[in-house]
Design a protein that fits this description.
Strand content: 15-25%
Number of helices: 7
Helix content: 40-55%
Order of helices and strands: HHHEEEHEEHHEEEEHE
Strand order of the largest sheet: 2-3-4-5-9-8-7-6
Structural class: alpha+beta
Number of strands: 10
Largest sheet: 8 strands, antiparallel
Shape: elongated
Radius of gyration: 23 Å
């Protein structure tokens, strides 16, 4: 006689969900730039959410689903969440398997079609910005900041600010632990919570971009790249680039702004 589904719902799905947590964590930890504890938390959601959902569905709707489908439903659900989180458009970058080299930052005179704005008003603005940043970050960082104008169309502007960290400092340790999390934290602090990760290019690390929706950031497209010992941010005039275009421009600009550390 077949057992009642509502009797076996939790007995089958919950242990299987726990098993999926450890299986998915074992797959993701070597790939992720995040700490193992963070990845285990992610895997707990991937494995347990489908297990609980299936158990509750079967418990409250008995005899609707054959008991032998409980397990496959949990496995498919957990695998689906894993794939969406790990390979979807908002997935954080995974570990590259190589040691990234430290690098410095500079303000090149030109980068592609962009030219450094050398006006006195712009210099004063960014010097004040650097002073504020240094008061927050301390004297253990090197700060560069400036504005770039696009060709003959000076209504298109790209602001750039970057920091080079010293080994052993708080920000340097945060970047070392997880470039992707350091990128996310910086952008969230600037009011950009809805971000997409992009290929960071040959320099490695993490690259994320987003479009501001409130306050002074409304309409501004901003990108931040983070790698060993440095973090840089570009911000584009509202309405001049898409998020995808900003990511590509930032990748190209990064090749000119980074110098051997």
């Amino acid at each position: 006689m077949q057992p009642k589904p509502n009797r076996w719902a939790f007995a089958i799905t919950i242990p299987l969900g726990v098993l999926m947590v450890f299986v998915l964590a074992a797959i993701q930890i070597p790939r992720s730039t995040e700490p193992a504890s963070f990845v285990l938390g992610q895997a707990s959601a991937w494995g347990m959410m489908p297990a609980v959902a299936v158990a509750l569905l079967v418990f409250f709707l008995p005899n609707r689903v054959p008991w032998w489908l409980y397990g496959p439903a949990v496995i498919v659900g957990a695998a689906g969440l894993f794939v969406l989180s790990s390979f979807g458009p908002n997935a954080e970058p995974t570990a590259s398997g190589r040691t990234e080299e430290r690098a410095g930052l500079q303000l090149p005179a030109t980068s592609g079609d962009w030219q450094l704005d050398r006006s006195e008003a712009t210099k004063r603005h960014f010097e004040a910005q650097k002073t504020r940043a240094r008061s927050e970050l301390g004297d253990d960082v090197t700060i560069v900041a400036g504005q770039y104008l696009h060709g003959d169309d000076h209504t298109r502007r790209m602001g750039f600010s970057g920091v080079v960290t010293q080994p052993g400092t708080g920000l340097d340790d945060e970047i070392k632990d997880s470039p992707s999390r350091a990128t996310r934290n910086y952008m969230a602090g600037a009011g950009f919570d809805d971000i997409d990760y992009f290929d960071a290019g040959p320099q490695g690390g993490a690259l994320a971009c987003g479009k501001g929706s409130t306050g002074q950031a409304k309409g501004v497209v901003m990108c931040t790249f983070t790698a060993a010992g440095r973090q840089g941010t570009t911000a584009f005039t509202p309405g001049t680039v898409t998020v995808e275009e900003a990511a590509e421009l930032t990748r190209e600009f990064r090749a000119d702004v980074e110098i051997p550390g």
